[in-house]
Specification:
binds flavin mononucleotide; 14 strands; 8-stranded parallel beta barrel; alpha/beta; 13 helices; 345 residues; single chain; 4-stranded antiparallel beta sheet
Length: 345
């Protein structure tokens, strides 16, 4: 396992980091699409003690591939790469070409390698997803993510796509288009949005929040979600930063620089909201000990995307091994007991 990790690290630093950003992205996605990595047992670790429940849905483990990929072939492959659930790219009503290049750059931060993107919801739109999603095998649960410009659009998306997902994620937090990001600035209308999407499906709903609006999240947005029957909070999306290399001059930062805030938020939300919330902790996970720390702090499950790019597909297996070691060391029977033993519901 360590060898696979070292090999990936050498390839990432020696090849991907030397290529121009757009070429590295295309090559990475082409490899993920064409190599049948999902059939190699190397990347997975099955053990009933690792399973957790999110919104009443049983996940074989608490690791979730965060929203980024819209290609069904990549989503299908990701389902065999050790994750306990896989999230789709946020789908919009009509196809979106995304922002012009450069729309993704790599950054070396004090805490390690990250990304800044202004992807702008590049995705083929609802109709393409509606045809593609039924073909996905659900080797692990699928989370369908949606992003809209109006309440009506969210409702149309949720009604159309929820039947193909095990859970539905309502993205109100991507910083790269005004349409989604602005929801956090108008809590009055957000209440109506939550009410409408809740009425649109019986599937468990996740509200994906922005780390840029911590105060509003705690004070207004999370209580609104709870009032309307949305109990799962994903914290969270990328952090908005200035980046002159990008076509939009700003973008969303992802990777380890986000981790301290993710951890603080999980601790705070658990303390403030107790067991009313299920918390999906996302932002900066790129090592096994970070997942362990988040679960102990009260996270129900943990999501990542940038760690898959910078640490490779072996990361999930490395994390799961460490979780099992901890379960054994602590003499508990399930992962949930680990969280409860810390007093974190
Ligand atoms: C290129 C790129 C595209 C993304 N697209 C979406 C998206 O469509 N919807 C969404 O909710 N989050 C999107 N995200 C955010 C990730 O799902 C995740 O929340 C964020 O990157 C923080 O986690 P990480 O540090 O593990 O990457 C995107 C991130 C990146 C880097």
């Amino acid at each position: 396992m360590r060898a696979a990790s070292l090999i990936y690290s050498a390839i990432y630093r020696g090849l991907f980091c030397r290529l121009p950003d757009p070429m590295a992205v295309s090559l990475g996605q082409a490899l993920l699409r064409s190599l049948p990595l999902d059939w190699l047992p190397l990347f997975r670790l099955k053990d009933p003690r690792l399973s957790v429940t999110l919104g009443g849905v049983r996940l074989p483990n608490p690791l979730i591939l965060s929203s980024m990929y819209y290609d069904p072939t990549i989503l299908r492959r990701a389902m065999g790469l050790g994750f306990g659930a896989v999230t789709t790219k946020s789908t919009t009503l009509t196809p979106r070409p995304g922002h012009p290049e450069p729309n993704l750059v790599r950054v070396e931060t004090a805490r390690g390698p990250g990304l800044i993107n202004c992807n702008g919801f590049k995705n083929p739109g609802l109709e393409v997803y509606r045809r593609a999603l039924p073909t996905l095998p659900h080797r692990v649960p699928l989370i369908v993510s949606v992003g809209g410009e109006s309440i009506e659009e969210y409702v149309t998306l949720v009604e159309a796509l929820a039947p193909f997902g095990d859970l539905v994620e309502v993205n109100i937090s991507s910083p790269n288009t005004a349409l989604v990001y602005q929801w956090s600035q108008k809590p009055e209308e957000l209440g109506s949005l939550f009410k409408a999407v809740r009425a649109a499906t019986d599937k468990p709903l996740i509200a994906k929040l922005s780390p840029d609006f911590s105060e509003a999240n705690d004070r207004a947005i999370i209580p609104l979600a709870l009032d309307h029957g949305i109990r799962i909070i994903n914290h969270g999306n990328t952090r908005r930063v200035t980046e002159p290399r990008l076509s939009q001059g700003t973008g969303g930062l992802s990777g380890p620089e986000l981790f301290p805030q993710t951890l603080d938020t999980v601790r705070r939300l658990r303390w403030r909201f107790g067991d009313q919330l299920e918390i999906l902790a996302t932002g900066g996970i790129d090592a096994p000990d970070k997942v362990l720390t988040l679960l102990r702090a009260g996270a129900t499950a943990c999501g990542y995307f940038t760690g898959l790019v910078t640490r490779g597909p072996i990361l999930a297996r490395l994390i799961l091994e460490q979780l099992l070691q901890e379960i054994t060391r602590r003499g508990v029977t399930r992962l949930d007991d680990l969280r409860r033993s810390e007093g974190n519901f």
